[in-house]
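Chapter summary example.
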Amino acid sequence: MAGLAAAFGSGAMTNSIQEIEDAGCILIIGSNTTECHPIIASRVFVAKEKGAKLIVADPRNIQIAAFADLVIHHRPGTDVALLNGVMHVIIKNEWHAKEYIEQRTESFDEFKKVIEEYSPKKVESITGVPQADIEKMAELYAKNPPGSLLYCMGITQHTTGVDNVKSCCNLGMLCGYVGVRGGGVNPLRGQNNVQGACDVGGLPNVYPGYLPVADIGAQEKFSRAWGKKLPETLGLTLTQMIQGMLEGKIKALYVIGENPMLSDPDLSHVHKAVSNLDFLLVQDIFLTETAKRADIVLAAASFAEKDGTFTNTERRVQRIRKAIEPPGIAMADWEIICALSTKMGYPMDYKDPGEIFAELAPLTPIYAGIDYDKLGIDGILWPCPTPGHPGTPYLHKERFSRGKGKFHAIHYHAPAEVPDDEYPYYLSTGRNFAHFHTGSMTRLSPHLSTEQEKPYIEISPKDAETVSVKDGDLLKISTRRGEVMVPARITERVPSGHLFMPFHFSESPANLLTNPAFDPLAMIPEFKVCAARIEKAG
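The structure predicted for these 538 residues follows.
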């Protein structure tokens, strides 16, 4: 790893899930934890029972806010300003960890100069959060060590997503909470093996273990291991791939376990891009919206029908073991990929996942000491650099991997699109407790589907009265990308001027509306904020 930024760039929690119970203060920002990560939420409740303070910062009045000592409702896309304001108060009151900063960090003075500009008064004008709440948030977080900061896609899915994450890191280091048990900066992964896929090279800019593609030594290392000269240029992100498809530069697309025809922003744009392909290959366990458009669909096995490893949000590498045989002609993903690779001229003749892992581990420094056959029931948390190493519950204990933790001087920048006279509402998208991602599994479950069968959009009572709609009436939601008809759900969960819509439902796809503008570094689209207008459907 290349330091603190690498840990956050990989989306890995610095600390283990269990340690959340030992926090003195928990700050949840950009995470609807009880609905999207209920197991982690249970750890938060244990911490509360043990006396921890809980701060929840979210534009909506989410469920876990009912248990918080302080609830912050900031305007969508103003996370950097909010966090800068909190850090301004901490430094002004000298609550920051001076000795930790001196010994373990760098670039503090440049960072401090920027923070000095974000007084609570200025931050209130940007975020809508009262100055007193900003000051209280700073006091609770700084005076109740150790502080555990939990965030999710409410932080990352912005045009300033990288800045948001760096601001979270700044706050953690400012109080000396990174590299201590029960503290840390802890991103919560949205799906079950996203962490593992990234760890082993499922990103366009790194090899397994986050070794940079642009690094000559890494190129040579993997070229020797795989017996082929590897490309020296970076691959494309999904956002760049969609553009490449539109321009005719990408002729074929291979989609594994993903449903971009429902999950990507500005779906009209995505539909046009997919239509421009010469060939679409989809590998999945169900016939998703994307699979229905495919030229060929390869039937994959589910998690219960194959062997291998998953790595979860806390960096825990876990064995999965086949419980039942896959149906029909379905095969495990690794078997399909090996067969396809062999047909294309690069033979892959692994006999089982254990053999694949045995090749992977020595090439991947963070996995180097993990023995597939000895993972057991509990698994092991990377980094595990040598055989016999117990794994690492929390990162950066004595020093940061890059040497010193770097403070980043970050200014607030507004979202790509904010409300105006034509589109006067904030629209945000996310998940509903009963469904997962595009609903390709949960909407097929009778029990879960019964919990929430139909799409909806959350609207405040005041705004509902403005457009003369009652609960369940059809609303027409419009943005600069398109329009959708969807039933209204009148609720106090959203403040006036704000709308929230889950993206699970293909019959009213929220992502026809969302903005494809993206973070210039991470290339993550701004799902969490765009400008919209509403009217009662005729």
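To summarize the output: The chain is about 30% helix and 20% strand.
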